[in-house]
């Protein structure tokens, strides 16, 4: 049997993770799949953007299997926990990180910048690829700064047209791991159904970084302003920048959606809208707005969930945020990306080992096994996002007093520990994602002291 040719669109978190596990399939080198990863961003830019994300539960098991745990732990942001602050920076409550990782709270045991994590996933896939090549397999082909214009399925093949080069190529399987705004999803499932698939939860956010000031510290400070506005200021781990999550919960102003629809080429309009909403909010907003205008790592999007009945159409399958984005406030996005990439590679083993002529039964299993996991992960805590982001100053005061008294009496801890999963308080679902054994070959741990050195 000739090895399957697999195109993975997107070199974020899920894409290179899938590629790594596929190459770790326990088959002779000549039978290992031929993998191409296509990334829209240019090589130097692809792994720059994005702020704090976390890895929890099953996600931690997967990075260990990838040999990536030490590198990731060496690159964390070292966030101490979450503080609720008011306009005078008075701390109303604080909840530290649970370093044992046994209770899933706001700050996870592993917090890392998204750009750094995607860079590590990409470099680790290069490392796995080099090991496979040395063994006689074909290594991963990476194409940066390119995207697909057309995807067609005929004669058991996925035929694609590259937008910039105009080249046409055929693959046995195409995996869309191209994020929440997935172009693969739009090309294959149709633009017209996007309104049903992409479900905004009424929250719009800018993610960027600003120069760090001494008082920023290592705690995440979370400030609320009336009108459903909020800002989180967080450490970057390097002690150089502070990262910002600036959001508005708003169902009325259509401009939030309009500026998002125009994509990231529209950063000036997105920044201007956030400035309009935050210029009178007090606290450190003057500094944050000034720096937002100057920053070059600005990223804006609607906070949305992707919901679909089925994640494959023939030989095209969606992975990670492209198929089932749970939203940044679920705390599950990265853990889902890791677990789903691992599972998809696992279910594809029957196809890769030649026990099945096509990948369709593997994709059916992926759909079936992922469904309960996704349904669980997409359940947000009751009242999210409105209860946590009050409309009035009184509402914010009540939130502060409530959280503060629940934290002081440790009731919050007890509620999260015993009822967190049922009530969907925090990303408890990460602990309940199973990590089956698929018989992948193991990969040597990538030691932390090699950070920054060529792999
Ligand atoms: C620039 C950026 C910044 C982010 N910042 C944050 C953040 O600050 N906080 C947070 O919680 N989550 C953030 N996320 C989302 C987070 O990375 C995901 O929720 C999660 O890690 C799941 O990963 P994924 O691999 O499924 O998708 P993503 O991490 O979104 O990766 C998708 C990849 O596909 C590429 N891509 C997109 N379209 C195409 C195309 N047409 N052709 C080829 N490649 C394409 C993207 O450039 C990206 O590299 C960000 C995502 C991106 C792309």
TrEMBL record:
Tell me where the transmembrane regions lie. 394-416
What SUPFAM superfamilies is this protein classified in? FAD/NAD(P)-binding domain
Q: Name one Pfam family in it.
A: FAD_binding_3
Q: Which InterPro entries match?
A: FAD-bd, FAD/NAD-bd_sf, FAD_aromatic-hydroxylase
Start and end residues of each FAD-binding domain = 6-377
GO terms of molecular function: FAD binding; oxidoreductase activity
Keyword annotations for this protein, in alphabetical order, are:
FAD, Flavoprotein, Membrane, Oxidoreductase, Transmembrane, Transmembrane helix
* Protein's recorded name: FAD-binding domain-containing protein
Q: Which organism is it from?
A: Clonostachys byssicola
């Amino acid at each position: 049997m000739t090895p399957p040719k697999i195109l993975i669109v997107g070199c974020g978190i899920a894409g290179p993770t899938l590629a790594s596990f596929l190459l770790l399939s326990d088959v002779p080198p000549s039978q290992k799949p031929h993998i191409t990863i296509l990334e829209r961003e240019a090589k130097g830019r692809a792994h720059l953007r994005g702020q704090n994300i976390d890895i929890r539960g099953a996600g931690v098991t997967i990075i260990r299997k990838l040999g990536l745990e030490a590198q990731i732990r060496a690159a964390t942001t070292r966030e101490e926990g979450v503080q609720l602050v008011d306009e005078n920076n008075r701390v109303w409550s604080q909840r530290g990180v649970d370093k044992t990782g046994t209770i899933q709270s706001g700050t996870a045991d592993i917090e890392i910048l998204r750009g750094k994590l995607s860079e590590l996933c990409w470099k680790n896939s290069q490392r796995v690829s080099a090991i496979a090549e040395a063994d006689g397999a074909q290594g991963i082909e990476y194409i940066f700064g390119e995207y697909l214009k057309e995807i067609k399925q005929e004669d058991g093949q996925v035929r694609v047209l590259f937008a910039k080069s105009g080249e046409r190529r055929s693959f046995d399987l195409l995996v869309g791991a191209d994020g929440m705004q997935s172009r693969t999803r739009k090309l294959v499932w149709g633009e017209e159904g996007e309104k049903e698939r992409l479900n905004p939860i009424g929250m719009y956010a800018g993610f960027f970084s600003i120069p760090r000031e001494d008082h920023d510290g290592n705690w995440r400070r979370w400030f609320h302003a009336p009108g459903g506005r909020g800002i989180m200021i967080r450490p970057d781990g390097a002690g150089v920048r502070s990262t910002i999550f600036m959001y508005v919960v708003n169902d009325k102003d259509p401009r939030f959606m309009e500026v998002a629809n125009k994509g990231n080429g529209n950063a000036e309009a997105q920044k201007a809208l956030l400035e309009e909403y935050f210029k009178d909010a007090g606290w450190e907003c003057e500094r944050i707005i000034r720096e937002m205008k100057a920053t070059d790592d600005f990223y804006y999007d609607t906070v949305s969930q992707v919901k679909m009945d089925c994640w494959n159409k023939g030989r095209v399958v969606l992975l990670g945020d492209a198929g089932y984005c749970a939203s940044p406030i679920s705390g599950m996005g990265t853990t889902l990306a890791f677990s789903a990439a691992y599972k998809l590679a696992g279910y594809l083993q029957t196809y890769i080992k030649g026990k099945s002529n096509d990948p369709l039964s593997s994709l059916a299993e992926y759909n079936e096994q992922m469904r309960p996991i996704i349904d669980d992960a997409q359940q947000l805590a009751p009242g999210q996002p409105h209860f946590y982001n009050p409309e009035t100053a009184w509402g914010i005061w009540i939130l502060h007093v409530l959280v503060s008294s629940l934290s002081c009496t440790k009731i919050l801890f007890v509620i999260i520990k015993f009822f967190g999963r049922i009530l969907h308080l925090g990303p408890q679902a990460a602990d309940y994602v199973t990590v089956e054994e698929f018989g992948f070959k193991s990969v040597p741990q990538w030691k932390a002291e090699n950070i920054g050195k060529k792999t």
